[in-house]
Amino acid sequence: MRRTTTRSGTRPGTRSGRELSALDAAYDECRRLVRTTRPTEYALMQLMPPVARPVSWALYAAFAFADDLLDRSAEAPEERGRLLREWRAALEADLASGTSDDPVRLALTDAVWHWGLDLGDLLDALDAVQRDDDRESVATWAEWRERAHAQNMSWPEQLMRMLVRVGLPVPVRLRDLPGFTRFVEGLFLTDMLRDLPEDLDGGHVWFPTEVLDRFQVTRAELLAREWTPAVRRLVAHLADQAREWLEDSRRALRNTLPLGPAIVLDSAVALFGAELDAFVRAGSAALHRQVRVPRHIEWRILGPARARAAVVWRLTLPPGRDAAAEASRTAAHRPAGVSGDDSAPALPAGPERHTTRIAEPPLPPRPHRDGARPPAIAEAHLPQHVAIVMDGNGRWATGLGLPRDEGHRAGAVALRDVVQGALEIGLAHLTVYAFSTENWKRSPDEVSKLFAIMRAELLDGELLDHDVRLRWVGSPDGLPEDVVEVLRAQEHATRNRTGLTLNVCVNYGGRAELARAGASLARAALAGEVDPARVSEQLFAAHLPHHALPDVDLLWRTSGEIRTSNFLPWHAHYAELHFTDQPWPDVDRRDLWEAVVAYTHRKRRKGAASAPAPAEGTE
Ligand code: IPE
Ligand code: IPE
Ligand code: MG
């Protein structure tokens, strides 16, 4: 059963100074717990952007705490089970009330509230840990896998959700990425080998019976820590297996993950690999005490990873987000709404979220990160329809020594901010050029990454959490099915929104659009429905595939190119043109406002001797 986050109760937004210091202490306690009990995972978390670290400690500390509780050998099994059930029930109560008297639960509660994490999913994962305690053994690899997934998918996904909230277009549904389940299995098996001494202390052997049988090893033999040739062969095989899964996942995920998470994944595979090496080298000792990776090996992996990660996060996080977070050490402490942060949105829970996740009712526009306020422009002076050629992603990325797709990711973040700015000034229509019919000339790799980013953005980005009605302008021909699906699904999900209409041009070509209108008219003429002598501009427009699109008042292109590249030839026939030099990823809502203010000063004569009503008047 899935639970929903109740948003009644004390919101952490109203915490007092004393509560804030309790919160600091709670996150610190989580940090301490993870650092001392899971040093490898802790080191990996330090590769995340600073804003994400407290959340990752809280998420992981909760799981480590539950897991360790069950591994405790001092208590009888029934007692351990009871303690965990109580802890789990207290957590649910804390999450409903928004506060807690236990440090780990307090930090987790704060993280869930503040970042709008999926509580139901987290509790399900904790339940899966609990279920382990009720079973004696695992029969097959299939059953073992199920267990690995149930316990370990949730927290990394929640962490991704949090990164999306700070403006990084990372994929949230990690479980849908080919290769991620393999990673989780490799991680789980490595962890199991590492924890072998404690598991044996607690009387558990969690390897599937199927593999024990294959190597002719009995549970009793393992529990007695007998180092027989069969046991040796078994553990060597398991270590190889874990390494193979980790490597497989690295290969599969290399091209799907954005640079930041990819650095964390690469380092995880290297570090866990080093743990497996150390485990195998330790021989029989690995059954008696946990084996640690030598410091110098850890440093060899982590040193360069830290440097790379720091650069990548600095470049890909929207400016200001992480610095602000670092200044207050734990941005997650800052009250939602009070800080001007885009936090704790009331997201609907439920299985439908990942197909058409949108906030209902929509959230108000997120304020600008530096507090910039929109210009006051009278509605009569606003352009009704602004169209943008979001150009320069590729050059932005290559200029920074990054692959082109990082430019598209950063471009997606820029669009989020511009949409917030459009909502703030009350713009009716914004049309953005996301993929032209000419863009198929690019490498298949760039094209497929671009679509993956677009899809993730529409599914998990913040765009549709606000009062935005999405319309897709373009043709399905040649587009991947999942992109068409998400465009249609989100069009449907947002159809009743009344704020900004955001038209995204995906697989759009202006001439193709005109040709389709021509074909449609010709068909109508052949069918005797249209008299060719009476084809007017209005009739032609009615045959355009996207005839509901209003005329463009202002067409803006970034990155210094002064052309329109087959964009909206019909609708932009009388548009005011605006060209700016900065590449699209460097744009934010203030640039949109500037463009709109410049527009208000234009004289729109449309062929007449003087403009009917001067469009001036920023108030
Ligand atoms: C615009 O940026 C985005 C798309 C065309 C999809 P570009 O990818 O064209 O960036 P540049 O023009 O190569 O710098
Ligand atoms: C136009 O940009 C298309 C989009 C922004 C999606 P391009 O970068 O593809 O255009 P050209 O090739 O410079 O004209
Ligand atoms: Mg371009």
UniProtKB/TrEMBL annotation:
<feature type="active site">
    <location>
        <position position="391"/>
    </location>
</feature>
<comment type="subunit">
    <text>Homodimer.</text>
</comment>
<feature type="binding site">
    <location>
        <position position="391"/>
    </location>
    <ligand>
        <name>Mg(2+)</name>
    </ligand>
</feature>
<feature type="binding site">
    <location>
        <position position="408"/>
    </location>
    <ligand>
        <name>substrate</name>
    </ligand>
</feature>
<dbReference type="Pfam" id="PF01255">
    <property type="entry name" value="Prenyltransf"/>
</dbReference>
<feature type="active site" description="Proton acceptor">
    <location>
        <position position="439"/>
    </location>
</feature>
<keyword id="KW-0808">Transferase</keyword>
<feature type="binding site">
    <location>
        <position position="404"/>
    </location>
    <ligand>
        <name>substrate</name>
    </ligand>
</feature>
<feature type="binding site">
    <location>
        <position position="557"/>
    </location>
    <ligand>
        <name>substrate</name>
    </ligand>
</feature>
<feature type="binding site">
    <location>
        <begin position="392"/>
        <end position="395"/>
    </location>
    <ligand>
        <name>substrate</name>
    </ligand>
</feature>
<feature type="binding site">
    <location>
        <position position="396"/>
    </location>
    <ligand>
        <name>substrate</name>
    </ligand>
</feature>
<dbReference type="InterPro" id="IPR002060">
    <property type="entry name" value="Squ/phyt_synthse"/>
</dbReference>
<feature type="region of interest" description="Disordered">
    <location>
        <begin position="324"/>
        <end position="374"/>
    </location>
</feature>
<feature type="compositionally biased region" description="Low complexity">
    <location>
        <begin position="324"/>
        <end position="336"/>
    </location>
</feature>
<dbReference type="InterPro" id="IPR036424">
    <property type="entry name" value="UPP_synth-like_sf"/>
</dbReference>
<feature type="binding site">
    <location>
        <position position="440"/>
    </location>
    <ligand>
        <name>substrate</name>
    </ligand>
</feature>
<dbReference type="Pfam" id="PF00494">
    <property type="entry name" value="SQS_PSY"/>
</dbReference>
<dbReference type="InterPro" id="IPR008949">
    <property type="entry name" value="Isoprenoid_synthase_dom_sf"/>
</dbReference>
<feature type="binding site">
    <location>
        <position position="576"/>
    </location>
    <ligand>
        <name>Mg(2+)</name>
    </ligand>
</feature>
<dbReference type="GO" id="GO:0008834">
    <property type="term" value="F:ditrans,polycis-undecaprenyl-diphosphate synthase [(2E,6E)-farnesyl-diphosphate specific] activity"/>
</dbReference>
<keyword id="KW-0460">Magnesium</keyword>
<comment type="similarity">
    <text>Belongs to the UPP synthase family.</text>
</comment>
<feature type="binding site">
    <location>
        <begin position="563"/>
        <end position="565"/>
    </location>
    <ligand>
        <name>substrate</name>
    </ligand>
</feature>
<dbReference type="InterPro" id="IPR001441">
    <property type="entry name" value="UPP_synth-like"/>
</dbReference>
<feature type="binding site">
    <location>
        <position position="442"/>
    </location>
    <ligand>
        <name>substrate</name>
    </ligand>
</feature>
<comment type="function">
    <text>Catalyzes the condensation of isopentenyl diphosphate (IPP) with allylic pyrophosphates generating different type of terpenoids.</text>
</comment>
<feature type="binding site">
    <location>
        <begin position="436"/>
        <end position="438"/>
    </location>
    <ligand>
        <name>substrate</name>
    </ligand>
</feature>
<protein>
    <recommendedName>
        <fullName>Isoprenyl transferase</fullName>
        <ecNumber>2.5.1.-</ecNumber>
    </recommendedName>
</protein>
<keyword id="KW-0479">Metal-binding</keyword>
